[in-house]
Structures are given as C-alpha cells and as structure tokens.
Design goal:
Layout: E1 3-6, E2 8-10, E3 20-22, E4 25-27, H1 30-33, E5 36-38, H2 42-61, E6 72-81, H3 82-85, H4 92-100, H5 110-123, E7 125-128, E8 132-135, H6 138-141, E9 142-145, E10 155-163, E11 168-176, E12 182-184, H7 185-189, H8 207-217, H9 221-229, H10 235-258, H11 273-283, H12 294-310, E13 314-316, H13 326-337, H14 346-363, H15 368-371, H16 377-391, H17 396-408, H18 426-445, H19 455-468, H20 481-484
Parallel strand pairs: 1-4, 6-9
Antiparallel strand pairs: 1-2, 3-4, 5-13, 6-10, 7-8, 10-11, 11-12
Helix pairs in contact: 2-4, 9-14, 10-12, 11-12, 12-13, 12-18, 13-16, 13-18, 14-16, 16-17, 16-18, 17-18, 17-19
Length: about 500
C-alpha cells in the first residue's frame, strides 16, 4: 500500500498518523499537530476521550452492530499495553468515562466534568445523548488488562456495548498513537486507504524533498507549508487558528507562572514555576545574574506549561501533552528575550515547527509508548529548534540542521514516568528540551547549513532505536526511574 499525504508521504502497512480525507487527498494539517486538549497526556487522556466519543457516534449511527443483538443497554472498556500500565497515573480511566459522557478535549470544562463523574459513580449509569441511559460502572466495566498487548500499537483499547441480556452489541478496537491521534484497528490496517495523487503545491515525504522544493521554488519552509495548508482552508482560517493555538499556549505559560501548590497523584511534587519566576523577576536590573541565567527563563516557561498539564489543565499538543512545554517556552523566549523579535513571525515559527513535526510523525513516531521520550520531548525540541531558527533568519538548510541537532541529542531517551504520572522526570525534561532547542538553533545559524547527519537519517535512527528499545522503557513505568525511585 502506498499512501500520499499532502505535505508528508508515508509508505507503511501500519499508519501511525491521524488522517482525514479532503478532496481525495489524505492530509496531515498543522492543526493535527497542534491540538487543543486537556492534561495530563495526549495519548493516554486526550486519545481515549476522543475514542470513546467516536464509539458513541458509531452507536448513534448504527454502525458495527452485531447481527441479532438486542437493544443497547450498557458500555464497557478494556485498556491494553501502555494504556493499562500507566493508565491510572495518566487518568485514562477517567478520560474514557468522560468521553462516554460526551466530553471532548477541546471544549473540556473541568467543573462540569467533576460533576458528571460524581453522578456516574453514584448512579452506575451514563446518560448518552440520543442513546438514553446506559449502565456503566467504571470500577467494574473498565478493565486494566496488563497481560494482553494488542497487535497494532502499544496504546490499545477495546470499547464494547452490550444488550439487555448482556450479549455483545457492538465492539471496536482503537489505538491512541500519540499526540491525540486515534485510529481504529481497520484504519491502522489501511483497508480503506488507497493510493492518491498529491494535488497540493508541495507534497514532500522527507526533509530532503522538502529542501528540494524550497530550493526549486525559492520559498521558505514556512511558505511551502502555508501553501499546502491554504490548499484546504482560507488564509484567514489558517491565521485565526494559529492565533488561537498561540493564545492558548501563552495563557498556559501564564497560568503556570502564577500557580503554586502540590500536584495530585501521590508523589507530592511541588509546583516550582511560580517561585522560580518570581526569583528571576527580582533579579532583573540588579546585575546579579550570570549569563547562563537565561536558561532558567527558558526552563521556567516550559516547566509552567507542564505543571499545568500535570494538573489536568488546558494545553496544546506540541506534538504531545507530555512534551507540550518545549515549543511554547522556545517561542516565548524568542518574543520576550531576543532583541528585534516580532509577533508577526509567530505564524512562521509554528508553520515551520509543524512541517518538522509532521515528518517525524509519519516517518517514525511521536508516541512515548512506541519509541520512548525521544519521540516526545525529542520531537518537540526538533520542532522548536526549527521554528526558532526560521524566525531568526535561518535558511531552509540551517533550519533542517537545527532540527537534526536537537533530535540527534535526544536519541535513546526513555519514557519512564514515576508512578505512571506525567510529573517526574517529565516536567523538568521539557525545560531541558527547550534549552537544547535554543542551542541547536544557535549552532545551526553559526554554520552554512552543510552537515554530516541529515534530519532524515536522524528520524530513521529514532524509529529504529524505538523499535529496539525494551518495552519497560516505553511508558509502562516498568523500568528506569519508575522502579528506582520510591513512588510514595
């Protein structure tokens, strides 16, 4: 099977990107990379919530009903692989329940969600729009299956519906492939995906092709990405969407900088962004800071985002929740600390970053459960480095080099969250990833774009490294810091 994606082209029997068909073309948009969601995890919270909503949509449409099944009466779910091993720490069970109750990540209301969850637990039922009252008791009807990993992806879940006699009414297998992307088992197998000829201006399947198109057209990476986006939407829609993405990213930073306290989950991790930020502000203008203190500014922006994510706040996948702080921190650093910075370049930053993120997504993975944290913070750092290099005047070759430097120096990074929580080492790791992004962009700008290791080679190396990595280091909390640090 050959699948052509506008902007990105992935040839595989296991499609790990979220794809939607527009005008006969399978398209991965910037708004697939940057999704508005809720913490603490895009793969373990956002994805399962989306899957539960999709399942109810199928029930409403009468799709997949088993012949001879009686009237719909109850719901059930089993979580597999990484969704089972770290699902409790990532609030996957709660996400599925709220998805069944009609909540969606982009419009998530925390207060209403708490109220709905209380009613569901008290009554053992869910009131599903157009489906009536369905039996569902989370403690009994949602199962963490630690013994069976589903074949399509490490993040698998089976959603089931039953009739009044307890017989299976409908069942679907979903995979949450990172960054909030969700595919059914049939979609993973590619049954309905046929080869398509690209009709967008610049369809590229690799960084090498992306650079060739930039050279041939005389356009920047952000310009060819913009042209591909406006092939399916208006320029006004694109600009308003990007403004919303940055507004939510920036607001998340500000909330994190203004909030302290202890994060829930049992590790008693204290939120630090507020105190660090206050300390940095107090030092301004007093000549008390060493030059390297700029790293603390970069870090505190990232830490603020990921403390908000860990607390279940609203974040933007960039490309995942677990790595959501890297890119906003780098962009905030540019806007607040770089002389001559301009808000007019925010779109170029985000478009360039999305081009790199899309390449990594379709040619390797952004899922910690699939390739470890090299696919999350590593990918985010590469995206941020590319975006920063672009707005600082980098050529396409320098931008590609910046992304490669950042990703290369995250290769092999494991995903080993203590107690299955997106707190340690995740929060600090975002700060370090942002610092690496800034350093990578700076190094690339010191050169002419020529370098030994290509971004394509680095992405392929990340894919192979993730494939060979032991499962215990891939978001299962069965190895690494998760077993060497007491989770109490």
């Amino acid at each position: 099977m050959m699948l052509v994606i506008v902007g990105f082209w992935h040839q595989s029997q296991s499609i790990t990107a979220s794809l939607r068909q527009i005008g006969g073309i399978m398209f991965l948009s910037i708004f697939d990379i940057f999704k508005i969601g809720v913490g603490p995890s895009s793969s373990h919270t956002v994805g399962p919530m989306v899957a539960a909503g999709r399942f109810l949509d199928d029930l409403r449409a009468g799709r997949g009903i088993i012949p001879g099944a009686g009237k719909l009466a109850s719901l059930g779910c089993s979580l597999h692989g990484s969704l089972a091993f770290t699902g409790k720490g990532h609030a996957t069970d709660r996400a599925v329940t709220l998805g069944f109750a009609g909540f969606q990540p982009e419009t998530f209301d925390a207060k209403k969600a708490t109220e709905a969850e209380t009613l569901i637990k008290a009554n053992g039922t869910i009131s599903a729009i157009d489906l009536g009252i369905l039996k569902y008791r989370q403690s009994d009807d949602l199962v963490f299956d630690y013994d069976h990993v589903l074949p399509g992806h490490a993040n698998g879940m089976v959603l089931s519906a039953y009739d009044e006699a307890g017989n299976l009414h409908t069942q679907e297998t979903y995979y949450s492939t990172g960054g909030g992307f969700v595919l059914t088992a049939r979609e993973m197998a590619g049954d309905a995906m046929l080869a398509q000829k690209p009709s967008a201006p610049y369809p590229f399947k690799s960084a090498a092709e992306m650079l060739e198109m930039c050279h041939a057209s005389g356009k920047s990476i952000s310009q060819i990405k913009r042209d591909n986006e406006t092939h399916t939407m208006t320029s006004e829609h694109l600009s308003s969407g990007l403004a919303k993405v940055w507004s939510i990213m920036n607001a998340c930073i500000d909330r994190g900088l203004a909030t302290d306290g202890i994060l829930d989950g049992g590790l008693f991790v204290r939120r630090r962004a507020k105190k660090i930020h206050e300390s940095l502000l107090s030092e301004r203008g007093l000549n008390l800071s060493a030059p390297h203190t700029i790293n603390d500014w970069i870090s505190v922006y990232a830490i603020a985002v990921n403390e908000e994510n860990a607390a279940g706040g609203q974040v933007v996948t960039a490309p995942t929740n677990g790595a959501a702080g890297v890119l906003p921190a780098t962009l905030r650093y540019y806007l607040d600390h770089v002389p001559g910075a301009s808000k007019d370049k925010i779109e170029d930053f985000l478009l360039t970053a999305a081009a790199i993120g899309g390449l990594i997504k379709v040619n390797a993975s952004i899922s910690g459960a699939e390739v470890g944290c090299q696919g999350e913070v590593g990918s985010a750092s590469a995206m941020a480095a590319a975006g920063l290099c672009a707005v600082l005047g980098g050529t396409p070759e320098q931008i590609e080099n910046a992304a490669e430097i950042a990703l290369e120096h995250h290769l092999g990074l494991t995903c080993d969250p203590i107690k299955g929580l997106v707190q340690a080492p995740c929060i600090e790791r975002n700060g370090v990833g942002a610092i690496k992004a800034v350093s990578a962009a700076s190094l690339a700008l010191r050169g002419d774009g020529a370098h030994l290791v290509s971004l394509d080679a680095c992405v392929e190396t990340m894919r192979q490294t993730g494939r060979d990595m032991d499962r215990k280091y891939k978001e299962t909390s069965l190895g690494g810091l998760a077993v060497n640090v007491p989770a109490c």
